[in-house]
């Protein structure tokens, strides 16, 4: 054994072949500071081994290398540039030192080789993958670019255009896809991987493979003429500008780095990568996107714990076969949990099955599913008009009309036919779980399970805990939601729960602006183009449904009478009063239709302006910063209140709830990350300027204390109730 560490080893095999193995003590191989120290030792050990003739790089895990341990590097990213760039360079120098060992090298790639794992295999002269391999450079999803030599080696191996596609999308590629573009040189069955790598390195040792030429290409400038360089990178920059936009600097920084390095050797190109990576590491976008990744891990970690704590859901049921019920049935069946879909009318069951079939057909048309699997999913959905089919289910999701009386009757009926251990969950967006719990006897087995529409697209599920809901019930429902492919967060019962509760102060801020003369199209433009929401507030209200929003406003007003009282001459209520319900009937703030080619259209509704006339002030232009402040301060304040009251448990879940439930701009990281990026003191100063507008603009005493003490919501338990 040349070297044996906690994560890495180097062993001299027969015929002078050194096996450099990644096999960490934990569950996955990753690059952290300790691994880097061992890496240096391995390089030195191989260099000092006179009998070494070739190297294979292998993994002792089911996945090759998952990437870098981003959690370890966050503090490092806070260093000033003159310290951060040398830190990045030290890592790329290490990879270079391995690449420069004057022996042929073959990487044997199994499972995930992502980020630093992909960059590791690029240092080798040849790469052989097994059929389980998934290879990619996902750094862009964290607001970064490859930082261990990926921007230098990949374009010199597969060409600049292919490299830009790989790095700007951050997608993982299957073995055959990697083979097609030249990232790997061969694909074999898993049981043949190690032998194939040994056979390949032997061929290189014997001179049958020109490994020196393969390596030399990675040390030289790109093989592009000046004209090809201009055409390639101008095309790439145009595509990235259109797709990524100004809020996500990583893809453009990456392609500009490739362009600047195109005519340079490895050392010059690596210096440009070092600087580009360091600059991105210090951006707000990277901080936000890394924060999202870590917050998502919090949610996934809680779901895994829940799966161990709660009884498994092997069979489910949904009551109500409308759009929501059909979507829930589809999602459950598609992810492997059989589900009974119960309604009172055949026509409703037909609608539910049609909804599921339509979603499956799209999957087949896009090549993501074959007809056999589609049939299997549909067979997992059992339509019924009778409660008899629900006797043996583990969980029932009630998804009937949003009316407490109707829901209460249905819940009482179904409880009478299900087993004593069956869980009942209500898919409600506004109705109190404790109120609905009055209709059931087994209150410990009852909770809320709030899906977002459309079910198959929206990642979030709010699991609402009532006063008497047991921990085991919550755990089982969280685990079921995760099994359905959703990201569940647990919230405590209150009007609107979490997501809708914090959304309506945002809508209130919008309504007040329109009443003061703001043009709703101008507000939408600011919130979409400048703040980054996928839809501005007027458009979002149309999508949610003006009738639904007006109803929910009443619920929120009853729940928070001083803070969310009904607004006189609310533009939303004015539209509702004229039967303008938004997209569902083609008229709201905007008019919806289709053009001559059948494509959907959306134009500001003249009728909306007519209805507002006399009820709102004369038209007035508002500064973009004021528009953002007037809408975002109420939302952020309400999120903080939800944290302080324990409605939502952690800042991570608060942020992910709005990212997954509302499409909060990912580059801002969620409402709490946004608040801390602005800075608590600056946010409070701004909010105080608008405090006269009402309670929704008034920050809590808790936030003022947080600002004074310099604490973070991410590291501090702020519950006050």
From TrEMBL:
Transmembrane segments: none annotated. The record marks 119, 139 as: Important for catalytic activity. GO terms for cellular component: fatty acid beta-oxidation multienzyme complex. Keywords: Fatty acid metabolism, Isomerase, Lipid degradation, Lipid metabolism, Lyase, Multifunctional enzyme, NAD, Oxidoreductase. Pathway: Lipid metabolism; fatty acid beta-oxidation. Its EC number is 4.2.1.17, 5.1.2.3, 5.3.3.8, 1.1.1.35. It comes from the Bacteria. Residues 311-721 are annotated as: 3-hydroxyacyl-CoA dehydrogenase. NAD(+) binds at residues 324, 343, 400-402, 407, 429, 453. The active site is at residue 450. Coiled coil: none annotated. PROSITE patterns: 3HCDH, ENOYL_COA_HYDRATASE. Residues 496-592 form the 3-hydroxyacyl-CoA dehydrogenase C-terminal domain. SUPFAM superfamilies: 6-phosphogluconate dehydrogenase C-terminal domain-like (SSF48179), ClpP/crotonase (SSF52096), NAD(P)-binding Rossmann-fold domains (SSF51735). GO terms for molecular function: 3-hydroxyacyl-CoA dehydratase activity; 3-hydroxybutyryl-CoA epimerase activity; delta(3)-delta(2)-enoyl-CoA isomerase activity; long-chain (3S)-3-hydroxyacyl-CoA dehydrogenase (NAD+) activity; NAD+ binding. It catalyses: a (3S)-3-hydroxyacyl-CoA + NAD(+) = a 3-oxoacyl-CoA + NADH + H(+); a (3S)-3-hydroxyacyl-CoA = a (2E)-enoyl-CoA + H2O; a 4-saturated-(3S)-3-hydroxyacyl-CoA = a (3E)-enoyl-CoA + H2O; a (3E)-enoyl-CoA = a 4-saturated (2E)-enoyl-CoA. Substrate binds at residues 296, 500, 660. Residues 1-189 are annotated as: Enoyl-CoA hydratase/isomerase. Involved in the aerobic and anaerobic degradation of long-chain fatty acids via beta-oxidation cycle. Catalyzes the formation of 3-oxoacyl-CoA from enoyl-CoA via L-3-hydroxyacyl-CoA. It can also use D-3-hydroxyacyl-CoA and cis-3-enoyl-CoA as substrate. This is Fatty acid oxidation complex subunit alpha. It comes from Thalassotalea euphylliae. The lineage of its organism: Bacteria, Pseudomonadati, Pseudomonadota, Gammaproteobacteria, Alteromonadales.
